[in-house]
């Protein structure tokens, strides 16, 4: 399918000042931005920037950023699922994954995560996709936030709901390995019934057939 990307932006007023949330951002623009030193949830800032530049260059890759002047303080990524994950087994060209979302500690609690998701869904092209995210408690910053797994899970669910993602049941072993883990998804308005049924089969690949 053709991957259309239409730029959108939102200016968010926070207690720290105004933050511009925009995207999808091109790989060239990302290269010219500075990544805040506290963007370290997944890898060092420079390595994270390199990874996002690569994702932005992919036909389906989408990067939405939150920035103060030229400094990125948060981002969200959308890309096809990892080939080693079950979600790629259906080879669905209209299923993409919210792969990572990160906001530096200084700007947490300011609605930036929700803003990143809202701007992501402003693009009408998102109505052509099933968007999934897999949430695992071992990726959560429990120490930095002081929240327990259930409190953090509630925060994550609220943030994802701002982008229209809802909880979906699955028998995926990694998600089922802890009750706080979860699968969330948003099914676009133009996704056909056949794709929805294929997604259902991916969610329950271990279901016994009689």
Quickly list its features.
210 residues, alpha+beta, Aminopeptidase, nine-stranded mixed beta sheet, 7 helices, 9 strands, 27% strand, globular, GNAT_dom, EC 2.3.1.-, acyltransferase activity, transferase, acyltransferase
Describe what you observe in this structure.
There is one protein chain. By secondary structure, the protein is α+β, with helices and mostly antiparallel strands. The protein has a single domain (8-203), classed as Aminopeptidase (3-Layer(aba) Sandwich). Helices cover 29% and strands 27% of the residues. The chain has seven helices and nine strands, in the order ββαβαβββαβααβαβα. It has helices at 27-31, 45-57, 112-121, 142-145, 149-161, 173-176, 193-203; strands spanning 8-14, 17-23, 34-35, 62-68, 71-79, 95-103, 130-135, 166-168, 182-187. Strands 1, 2, 3, 4, 5, 6, 7, 8 and 9 form a nine-stranded mixed sheet that branches. β1 and β2 (17-23) form a beta hairpin. The model has no long low-confidence stretch (mean pLDDT 93). Pfam families: Acetyltransf_1. Its EC number is 2.3.1.-. This is Acetoin utilization protein AcuA.
């Amino acid at each position: 399918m053709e991957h259309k990307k239409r730029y959108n932006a939102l200016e968010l007023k926070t207690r720290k000042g105004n933050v511009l949330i925009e995207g999808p951002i091109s790989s060239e623009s990302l290269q010219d931005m500075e990544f805040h030193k506290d963007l370290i949830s997944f890898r060092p800032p420079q390595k994270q920037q390199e990874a996002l530049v690569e994702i932005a260059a992919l036909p389906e890759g989408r990067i939405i950023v939150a920035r103060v002047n030229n400094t990125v303080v948060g981002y969200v990524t959308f890309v096809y699922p990892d080939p080693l994950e079950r979600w790629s087994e259906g080879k669905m060209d209209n299923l993409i994954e919210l792969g990572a979302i990160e906001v530096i500690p200084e700007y947490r609690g300011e609605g930036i995560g929700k803003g990143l998701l809202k701007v992501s869904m402003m693009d009408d092209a998102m109505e052509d996709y099933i968007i999934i995210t897999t949430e695992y408690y071992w990726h959560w910053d429990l120490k930095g936030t002081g929240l327990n797994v259930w409190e953090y899970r509630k925060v994550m669910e609220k943030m994802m709901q701002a982008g229209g993602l809802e909880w979906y049941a699955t028998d995926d072993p990694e998600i089922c390995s802890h009750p706080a883990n979860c699968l969330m998804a948003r099914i676009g308005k133009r996704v056909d019934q056949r794709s929805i049924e294929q997604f259902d089969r991916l969610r329950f690949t271990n279901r016994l057939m009689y």
